[in-house]
Automatic annotation (TrEMBL):
Residues 14-26 have a biased composition (Polar residues). PANTHER family: BIOFILM ARCHITECTURE MAINTENANCE PROTEIN MBAA, DIGUANYLATE CYCLASE DGCP. This is Diguanylate cyclase (GGDEF) domain-containing protein. Residues 685-817 form the GGDEF domain. The keyword Acetylation does not apply. The lineage of its organism: Bacteria, Pseudomonadati, Pseudomonadota, Alphaproteobacteria, Hyphomicrobiales.
């Protein structure tokens, strides 16, 4: 569609009380109105309700040729006997029920032509463009045989009574061509001809119904006695026969819906269309109720199965005498003229409208200067002539009626969907709600009649009907090929819609072969079973249409809407944002402006697709709010800069210490341990390392809550400091501490310190009136007795701690290699790891990275080890071992290569983030290796982000920065991981322009309840925003943490709340999609 569209839907008042988030009903209605098209070209409005009702007579008079088929049948197709009369009455009742919904639907687009199916096509556009096309073409196919069969009946009557030498086929073709020429002259001339024709045929219809009643010729007993002819005995035979009759009675609907074909050419359609529908409904009552009952009472069942032009004379004779036969002949001829004229005037406009909507080939939209769609009219006339030349047999009419039933069922479904999804949209005519529901029920009856009645006409008819129905998909494909070639694209696109539709067609073909095989295996003595198999085949065919066309269409429409909205954002507001931020950086505040241009994604499905559209609308709304807030940001630039400097000083201090206990943090401990080790090694001295773990501390959290637990931790830290008498002590984790004993003779000094700590911690703590006992387990290792390097010393102290906890807790355990089962396990694990790499036991898991609004933009690659004995192992189990024995380089290279290879295969070009260990980073040829990986895998370097910790910058900073600049020259991104856990973070940011800052999970955990954590996180976010460096927070696990980060302006998040690490196959919906999904769909 073009962007300059007429909007026919107008919001008439919205109740927002039930809206909790996202766009309101009013905004959705306004958004829908932007893509609901009301026709690309306007039409001259020349007809009123009389002209529309006159043209609709082409629907009422279909009773004349249907009643003969219902009474007598044709060939192997049985008639229904006198039960045809109540079937006709039921058919018109169904149409009466459906008419209010049709009127409401058509008047929602008063500038369109083509009737209910064209309006239905517009309403179905968000669900499936192919379904929209199929509905319109099915409607058209249903009218084409009517054009031919009515011309045959007219020509036959004229030949018998006036031109005996004129071949019927030639006469019928001449009638079709004559009315074609009339239509090409314009609707005004068609209406001028139709109105006297309708007056004459309607008058004769009234006479045919009134004269027999007035003269007493009606045998009312005969008129109200009905017998049903069935194909086989039993209740299923009765049902099959009734449904086959109702199936043909679908042709009662034209008596109503034909009046709606010209609403775009109608003067004051809001007033005239309901009047035309009302008059048409009254005429339908005459043709489908009064006339059949009177004729049955006068003529009987046998006569009504014959040529009506020959048998209707007695209904006129009592008044007209010898002119009764002539009246009967002209009654048939005039009514058949209507039936020939209407498809050329109405159904042809359906094709033209669909072509203008971009759903059918372009040539069908061509019009004459008189506004006649000449190409569609000629196509309609041509197909009608082809059908009449083969005699328009009843099986052909039945096949066309199958498509027509689809064409009249779908508008009721569309009206119901619009009432559900857009209850407040403007409606010039609003049908009672009960009539909308009853119209849907009528559609269900028509659908049921198609399932149970269509099969009676035989498999060839079923297959031909399905071919007519699916021709809409072929014509839509034709138009798509046209448009793609015009746009310079390949003719065919490998879309999900195409694949699913092809698969469903293949299923239908297989079902047809299966049906033929099943039926051929049955004898003719099982008609009920054969009928049941035929019904099943029709059901599968209808389900194929639903699954193969509707569902892929809904998916494609939503995806396209999101894509277009994303394109508008990236080429409009987001680009303006980038320029505005650059202007702010230059100090040009006047240029820092964003033009707001938001078109909400239309959202009508109540499932994951709807949630995706709603989430994108929320994203657009947030961007709009951000644009508005930009003005406020400009005013607060100076204040923010001052606050940034203050917070930078704060983070310099807090980055070295635990925010709760004010003890040094893990990074400072690592540096202090390295210094003590180097000093001891140089002097030949000894020192001890004590690792402490609080026993059952989790129970304190569970019983007393986090507030008491935090206060208890502070008290424990103070007691440990007091007892250790100045020894260096640090908090390593939630309930873990470490202590360095550098004075005194070892190992005695460490043993004495451990005993003092145990004695001190044996005393209960008094916290908020609660006496809380806290036990501690201690692991002790000393240098050089237990280790020759800091890493091993720390690992051995931890091993001793584990032994203390295993032996009963509340004790100290001293490292002993002979009883260190963990050391043996670590050695065994080292051997297994060395063999596991070539054995392809490593796995790459992926954890989503998302914006704060929930859009997944990439993944972090995380290594896992599928151990043959222990199963899937997390990286903390083996990475430290790999770093110690040098395997970390091989593992890191494998992870990087594998992640790049897999990411290059994704259809969706998401970011891939890979951790880089300090050992791997310091490997001199890493930049060359990275360049070869990018070249071999074909991954765009802009998609790759390397995460490094500040530990790589501690030693030989100048060399580290040189390597980082080489990496940046490859156009990859570099992020600082675990920001704030060490002491050199700020200087690192000053020395090297990192692309991203990642806040360590230790600060994020509990940030909503911990003031110190909140202060650090807030400062880091402000620092990142001030330096124009994106900030991502890892370890986000709760909604409250997410909400805090969102309030503070954090741009990106990662954690279990967004998605857990999984194999990439689990996220195929993201990697293979042509668009970005919301994080709500990740889990």
């Amino acid at each position: 569609m073009s962007d300059s569209r007429a909007r026919d839907i107008r919001p008439s008042g919205v109740d927002n009380s039930g809206v909790q988030s996202g766009p309101t009903q009013e905004s959705l209605t306004q958004a829908v109105s932007t893509w609901f098209d009301s026709g690309r070209r306007s039409h001259p409005r020349t007809i009123g309700w009389r002209g529309a009702a006159a043209l609709a007579m082409g629907g009422s008079n279909q009773m004349i040729f249907i009643i003969t088929a219902l009474f007598a049948g044709q060939g192997d197709i049985l008639g229904k006997g006198s039960a045809a009369v109540p079937l006709l009455i039921v058919g018109v009742i169904l149409s009466w029920v459906a008419a209010p919904a049709w009127t409401e639907l058509v008047l929602m687009w008063p500038n369109r032509v083509g009737g209910i199916s064209a309006a239905c096509a517009e309403a179905f556009r968000p669900y499936s463009p192919v379904l929209s096309t199929l509905t319109g073409t099915c409607y058209w196919w249903g009218w084409v045989p009517t054009c031919g069969v009515t011309a045959i009946l007219s020509a036959s009557a004229i030949q018998q009574w006036y031109l005996p030498r004129l071949p019927v086929e030639a006469g019928a073709a001449g009638i079709v061509l004559a009315f074609t020429i009339l239509n090409l002259c314009g609707l005004k001339w068609v209406t001028r001809f139709a109105m006297p024709l309708a007056l004459a045929s309607g008058s004769l219809a009234f006479l045919s119904s009134i004269i027999p009643v007035w003269s007493g010729l009606v045998d009312w007993r005969q008129a109200t006695t009905f017998t049903l002819t069935t194909p086989f005995p039993g209740w299923f035979g009765d049902v099959t026969s009734v449904m086959a009759g109702l199936y043909l009675i679908g042709f009662a609907a034209p008596a109503f819906e034909a009046a709606a074909c010209h609403v775009g050419e109608m003067v004051d359609p809001d007033r005239n269309l309901p009047l035309a529908m009302l008059v048409s409904a009254a005429m339908a009552g005459v043709y489908f109720v009064i006339l059949p009952v009177v004729w049955l009472g006068v003529l009987g069942s046998e006569q009504l199965g014959k040529d009506l032009a020959l048998v209707l004379g007695p209904t006129f004779a009592p008044l007209l005498g010898s002119f009764g036969k002539a009246a009967a002949i002209w009654f048939v001829v005039l009514n058949m003229f209507h039936g020939t004229m209407q498809p050329l005037a109405g159904a042809a406009r359906t094709l033209s409208q669909l072509s203008e909507d971009g759903l059918l080939p372009r040539f069908l939209a061509f019009r004459t200067q008189t506004d006649c769609p000449w190409a569609a009219t000629l196509l309609t006339a041509g197909m009608a002539i082809v059908f009449l030349l083969i005699g328009d047999p009843i099986w052909l009419i039945a096949a066309a009626n199958f498509t027509y039933l689809i064409g009249i069922c779908m508008p009721n479904v569309a009206a119901w969907l619009l009432r559900r999804d857009l209850p407040d949209a403007g409606r010039p005519y609003r049908a009672p709600r009960c009539m909308i529901d009853l119209g849907l029920a009528a559609a269900a009856v028509w659908l049921l009649s198609a399932i149970l009645g269509f099969q009676q006409f035989g498999l060839p008819t079923v297959l031909f009907g399905l071919a007519l129905a699916y021709s809409g998909a072929a014509l839509y494909a034709w138009r798509m090929i046209e448009d793609r070639l015009r746009a310079g694209l390949p003719a065919f696109a490998r879309t999900l819609h195409t694949k699913l539709t092809g698969a469903m067609l293949f299923v239908l073909i297989l079902d047809g072969f299966g049906y033929i095989f099943a039926v051929s295996s049955l004898s003719a003595g099982h008609p009920a079973l054969i009928a049941a198999l035929e019904d099943i085949f029709v059901i599968v065919a209808l389900l194929t249409i639903t699954v193969g066309l509707v569902l892929p269409g809904m998916i494609t429409h939503t995806a396209t809407d999101v894509r277009d909205a994303a394109t508008r954002l990236t080429s409009g507001m987001l680009r303006d944002f980038s320029e505005a931020m650059s202007a702010l950086g230059r100090g040009d505040l006047d240029a820092a402006h964003v033009a707001v241009n938001i078109v909400p994604v239309q959202n009508l499905s109540h499932d994951e697709l709807g949630e995706m559209g709603e989430s994108f609308n929320i994203l657009q709304e947030r961007i709009r709010e951000a644009a508005i807030g930009l003005d406020e940001a400009r005013d607060k630039m100076h204040t923010s800069r001052a606050e940034l400097l203050a917070r930078r000083e704060q983070i310099t201090y807090l980055g070295h210490y635990d925010v709760l206990t004010n003890l040094p943090n893990r990074a400072v401990f690592a540096m202090r341990l390295a210094d003590v080790f180097e000093n001891a090694k140089a002097k030949g001295a000894a020192f001890g390392l004590l690792t402490l773990d609080l026993d059952h501390f989790k129970e304190v959290n569970d019983v007393f809550g986090h507030t008491v637990a935090d206060e208890l931790l502070c008290a424990i830290a103070a007691r440990l400091q007091e007892t250790s008498r100045g020894a260096f002590i640090t908090r390593m984790g939630s309930d873990e501490f470490a202590l360095l004993v550098t004075s005194g003779r070892q190992p005695g000094a460490s043993e004495a310190m451990a005993n003092e700590l145990l004695k001190s911690m044996a005393q209960d703590f008094e916290i908020q009136g609660n006496r809380i006992p806290v036990g501690v387990s201690i692991g002790v290792a000393t240098y050089p007795r237990d280790a020759v390097d800091p890493e091993t010393l720390q690992a051995n102290a931890t091993a001793a701690l584990y032994r203390a906890k295993a032996d009963g807790r509340r004790m100290a355990c001293y490292f002993d290699p002979r009883m260190d089962h963990r050391a043996r396990e670590r050695y065994s694990l080292q051997l297994d790891l060395r063999a596991g790499i070539p054995n392809e036991e490593l796995r790459v898991y992926y954890q989503p990275l998302a914006t704060i609004e929930g859009e997944v933009f990439g993944f972090e690659a995380l290594v896992r080890w599928q151990h043959p004995k222990y199963g899937l192992l997390a990286p903390e189990t083996f990475i430290s071992t790999a770093e110690q024995n040098g395997l970390i380089i091989e593992i890191g290279e494998w992870v990087l290569r594998q992640a790049c290879r897999e990411a290059a295969l994704w259809a969706n070009p998401l970011q891939i983030s890979v951790n880089l260990s300090p050992v791997q980073f310091r490997n001199g040829d890493f930049p060359d290796f990275l360049q070869s990986v990018l070249s071999n895998t074909g991954l765009a370097p802009q998609r790759l982000e390397l995460e490094i910790t500040e530990g790589v910058l501690i030693n030989d900073t100048s060399r580290a920065l040189s390597i980082l600049r080489r990496l940046k020259s490859l156009k990859v991104k570099v992020a600082m991981d675990d920001f704030g856990t060490g002491f050199s973070s700020l200087s690192s940011l000053q020395s090297f322009p990192f692309d991203k800052i990642k806040i360590d999970r230790s600060f994020v955990a509990g940030v909503d309840s911990n003031p110190q954590s909140a202060a650090i996180v807030r400062a880091v976010i402000a620092l990142g925003n001030g330096l124009d460096i994106p900030v991502i927070a890892e370890g986000v696990e709760t909604e409250s943490e997410h909400d805090f980060l969102k309030r503070e302006g954090c741009r990106e998040v990662q954690g279990y709340l967004i998605g857990r690490p999984k194999p990439i196959a689990s996220y195929s919906g993201l990697t293979q999609a042509a668009h970005v999904l919301n994080a709500a769909n990740v889990h």
